[in-house]
Amino acid sequence: MNSEDELAAGIGAALRRISDGSGAWALRCVYRNRTGMGLDRVFCATQHGTGRRLAVKCNADPQRNRLQFEALGHLRKAMPDCVAPLWLAPDAGFYVMEWIAAPHLLRRMQDADRLQAIAGAARWLRGLHDRTAERWRRRDEIIERPQLLPPQPCPGHETVRRRLEDWRRSLRSRRGRRALLHTDFQLHNLFDSGGRIIAFDPVSRRMGYAGFDLARFLIGAEMFRGLAAIGGRSWPDDAATDRRVFLEAYGGVPSASSGLFDFVEALQAARLWHRFASNPDPDRGARNRVELLERMLRRSGVLDAA
Questions:
Q1: Mean pLDDT estimate for the chain
Q2: Same-domain status, 157 and 69
Q3: Last residue in a domain, options 98, 121, 150
Q4: Residue 306 within any structural domain of the chain
Q5: Is residue 252 a part of any domain in this protein?
Q6: Which pLDDT score is estimated for 2?
Q7: Band of pLDDT at residue 257, cut at 50, 70 and 90
Q8: Confidence bin at 22 (pLDDT 50/70/90)
């Protein structure tokens, strides 16, 4: 899309196609985030007369739209409790999906029944992995990459990279349970619709070691807990309780005996840390995330104690 007018026209045409040409639609921006590629946005589209609502996601990078739309379709085939993708623009400038009128799990973390929500997320994930599991255990492509971290330097980069590579060499086995991954399984990518967990916003379609999804959830939950405390909105319970409830509801750690999950959890934390730590002009939120993730890396031995 070359302009806002063209984007609006393209969205309007897609919505008319989805609704068989009936009724006009109003767009309201509900999310925006500036990235290195430009402005990512999500719109709520409401149809006049019927009140029907749909979500329209416009990433600045068309390739991200294409990958997310395709990944969402594969998730939906495996798990009915997933946002339905409806339309991808021919130029991949945006895509349309089902609108879910429910809070995401991050907003539930101060509620009295928050642990039930965490357990529900774990059961959803176990369902995805059970339905899509491969018969044979094989190595994961991310674990096997020559470079475990992106090359952009940041304070501590060389230490983290070297220790992760040493850890990888020391693993007794790199083979683990493989399944279709969500690829960004975290609290704000899950809706809680009256106790029914509905997933959305995968990054891409990927078959890989199931522990990557578990690690992403646990790291994200601990990080968001820390951010809430910094903001004066502390959650009930503690990170250890969140972790125990999630892993028990999932059914335990896949390939725990080989140490593979511990390594992948540290790798996931390091990759997320690098995303924020390599930013040359971080805001306060990014700096807080770096600090919280560095605590996790120190705990795993990938960084030295402060």
A1: 95
A2: no
A3: 98
A4: no
A5: yes
A6: 54
A7: confident
A8: confident
Q: Per residue in 36-58, pLDDT tens?
A: 788 999 999 999 989 999 999 99
Q: Any idea what the CATH number is for the domain that residue 141 is in?
A: 3.90.1200.10
Residue with tokens 């063209």: 6
Specify the number of domains making up the chain: 2
Final residue before a domain boundary, out of 98, 119, 136: 98
Q: Could you tell me the pLDDT band of residue 20, with boundaries at 50, 70 and 90?
A: confident
Do 173 and 214 reside in the same domain of the chain? yes
Quote the domain boundaries for residue 170. 105-300
Are 111 and 117 a contacting pair, CB within 8 Å? Answer: yes
The reported pTM is 0.94
pLDDT at 234 over 90: yes
Average of per-residue pLDDT across 208-236: 98
How far is residue 14's CA from residue 295's CA, in Å, rounded to a whole number?
46
Is residue 87 domain-shared with residue 126, that is, in the same domain? no
| Structural domain contains residue 305 | no
- Sheet with 38-47, strands from edge to edge, namely 25-35, 38-47, 53-58, 95-98, 85-88
Q: Do 297 and 303 meet the contact criterion of CB atoms below 8 Å apart?
A: yes
| Inter-residue long-range contacts of 56-60, CB under 8 Å, 24+ positions, other chains counted | 56/11, 56/14, 56/15, 56/27, 56/94, 56/95, 56/96, 56/97, 57/94, 57/95, 57/97, 58/7, 58/93, 58/94, 59/94, 60/35
CA distance 294 to 123: 29
